[in-house]
Amino acid sequence: MVLVFAENNAGKFKKAAFEAVSYGKKIANQLSCDCAALVIGDASSAGELGVYGADKVLNINDASFADFDAQNYVAAIAEVSNNIGAKLIIVSHSSTGRSLVGGLAARMNAAVISGANALPTLDDGFHVSKNVFSGKGIANFSLNTDVKIISLMGNSIQPENMGAEVSVEHVSVAPGNGRVKVVERKTVSGTVPLPEAELVVSAGRGMGGPDKWGIIDDLANSIGATTACSRPVADTGWRPHHEHVGQTGVAIRPNLYIAIGISGAIQHLAGVSSSKTIVVINKDADAPFFKNADYGVVADLFDVVPKLTEAIKAFKAVNA
Amino acid sequence: MKILVCVSRTPETTANISFSGDNSQLDTNGLQYIMNPYDEWYALVRALELKEQVGGSVSIINVGEAENDPVIRKGLAIGADEAIRIDAKPTSSLFVAKEIAAYAKDQGFDLIMLGKESIDYNGSLIGGMLAELMALPYISYATSMDLNGNTATLNREIEGGTEICEVETPFVLSAAKGMAEQRIPNMRGIMMAKRKPLNVVPSAGSDNLENVSSYQVVSKDRNIKILDPENMEELVRLLHEEAKVI
Question: What residues of chain A lie within 8 A of the CB of B221, using their CB?
Answer without folding.
Answer: 291-292
